[in-house]
Structure prediction request, 312 residues.
Amino acid sequence: MAILKGIRASVAINGESLVEYDEDVNEISDNPRDSNLIVKYVEAISGAHFEIRYRWDIPDLKTCEGLMFQADLDGKCMDSVVYQFKKNHSHGRMDSARRCVCGQWTREKFRFAEIISVDGQSGNIGSLDASDLASLGKIVLSVCRIRNIRESTTATTTANVQTGSPLSGTIPEKALKGRALSHKTSLDPPEITADVPTVSSEYIDRLDSPFVKFEFRYRSRRALQIEGVIPRSPSPIPLEDRPVQSLTREEALELLARRTARNQPDTKSDDSSTRRVKRERDPEFDEILASSFVPKKARASEDIEIIDLLDD
Prediction:
């Protein structure tokens, strides 16, 4: 879990928090970070539902009555939740966008989806501005301190939740500008859920300058390797370049077959005779093959009793 100022957060799939990777050192030096911001990279799994988990342990916050957590996916605010200290809350999670329309609450679960890019100047995703593209591939959790918490009589929608959804459709290749973006977020179809109590409160921290901000940049494993976040998988060493002693029996047989195929003369066989080519003995190969050879067990001899039927 990423941790900042006593607050921990993570992105989880199937109840397991995703492995977090630090951003490239050169990127940090080129773009100094705000002291209230922490950035982590995670691996996105196509089609998987995900949730944002968080917990806190801040005993010295005497200037506020609670915390407000807000989740943004690809630049769009999906949900916000308020926790009051007096109710002894210490952890929570968000896995869907909740909305109330005409008195009916629904939820739309978070999911990862692959980006479909197309050649040319335009896709079918609609108009894209610089902020949309800058926010693509990011899950952001903002935390603000609040006070004067009171029940709200209005339940039209959750606080600060926009009516928009994450980006959908195809994206022009040119708009990505060579960025190693592989995934976006999407929402499942809405399903009816229980009513959600709403509150009003006074913000101590502004939403554009929260107390703590977690930014999870999600990518495929391949994209993480391209960006240098995780090392690339090393290329396997060809069998021909490896010491013979390091080969397994199967690898030795494979290498032997390759060498035999290369040394096989390119001659046509006639009907009268067939040319047989003997393999040149290789002591190292023979040693490897012999070490894995298991001789057959000889059948134990049995004493046979002979009866002379001509004996009087």
